[in-house]
Design a protein that fits this description.
Layout: H1 5-16, E1 21-27, H2 33-44, E2 50-56, H3 63-73, E3 77-81, H4 87-97, E4 102-105, H5 114-126, E5 131-135, E6 142-144, H6 148-165, E7 177-180, H7 181-185, H8 197-207, E8 212-216, E9 218-220, H9 231-252
Parallel strand pairs: 1-2, 1-4, 2-3, 5-8, 6-9
Antiparallel strand pairs: 4-7, 5-7
């Protein structure tokens, strides 16, 4: 029997007061954006029980100092210095340090919206999913100012992953997704060192048999700071991650659900 909207809202209202949400944000040289994203979350988030976990990935500007100031002024903000340089190490450390039942990975450049974060949390908590994946390329999704070359390569890479893994997800590479923390722990060991970590997590979630849902989200290209994504440096790493997860699926048949 399906629940009515009123019943869902009552369940959500209860969940909002009980389950901690960890918002994991890796940063490198984002001294301005750490303030922007923290403020956006504080103003727009619906769940009052949350923490923001910043992982400083070897910043060379004043990001570290700004994070100290932020955490001193807002007890919901904590930060840690990455020990293994790269996004893979930053996400790994953030997962370990997060205390929430749910962990949402967001980027610091405001490409992801807090409205979508609220939607994620509602879907994963009410639906009892192991993960909720956003897609910018399904009905209701939106992309604003996405570089054309990057977009073409993105669609080709995601299509290849979709065909190899044989799944309905068409936006693996977007890092903005939400998971139960126990789901993330069950994806270990993590092998990716860079942006390909955002490929590895959903690939393993699917191939290891976890329950997930796909929802439309919006993406806005950054307006402050410099993008860290380098297409020419990351192609081989994405291919490695895809083949690694594909071989795991075929040879090991790893299922945890």
């Amino acid at each position: 029997m399906s629940l009515t909207n009123k019943q869902n809202n009552l369940i959500y209202k209860y969940i909002k007061m009980s389950d901690l949400l960890s918002i994991l944000i890796p940063v490198r040289d984002e001294k301005e954006n750490v303030y922007i994203i923290s403020s956006e979350i504080e103003k727009k988030i619906e769940n009052s029980n949350y923490e923001i976990v910043f992982i400083n990935d070897f910043s060379e500007d004043s990001t570290s100092e700004e994070l100290i100031k932020l955490s001193e002024s807002n007890k919901k903000i904590i930060h840690f210095d990455n020990k293994k340089k790269g996004l893979g190490g930053a996400i790994d450390l953030g997962i370990q340090k997060s205390k929430g039942k749910y962990v949402c990975i967001m980027m610091s450049d405001s490409s992801d919206t807090v409205e979508d974060l609220n939607y994620y949390y509602k879907e994963i908590s009410i639906g009892n999913f192991d993960a909720v994946f956003g897609s910018r390329f399904i009905k209701g999704g939106k992309v604003v100012d996405y570089p054309k070359i990057k977009l073409i390569l993105n669609r080709l890479g995601n299509l290849l992953a979709k065909l190899l893994i044989w799944t309905d997800l068409n936006d693996f590479t977007n890092g903005f997704k939400i998971y139960k923390k126990e789901t993330l722990i069950n994806l270990y060991p993590l092998v990716s060192e860079s942006f390909n970590i955002f490929f590895e997590l959903p690939l393993k979630t699917i191939t290891r048999g976890f329950k997930y849902k796909i929802v439309p989200i919006s993406y806005y290209n950054r307006t402050v700071g410099e993008a860290k994504f380098k297409i020419d440096e990351l192609g081989s790493k994405y291919i490695f991650t895809l083949l690694y997860c594909f071989l795991e699926k075929i040879l090991l048949k790893t299922k945890v659900k």
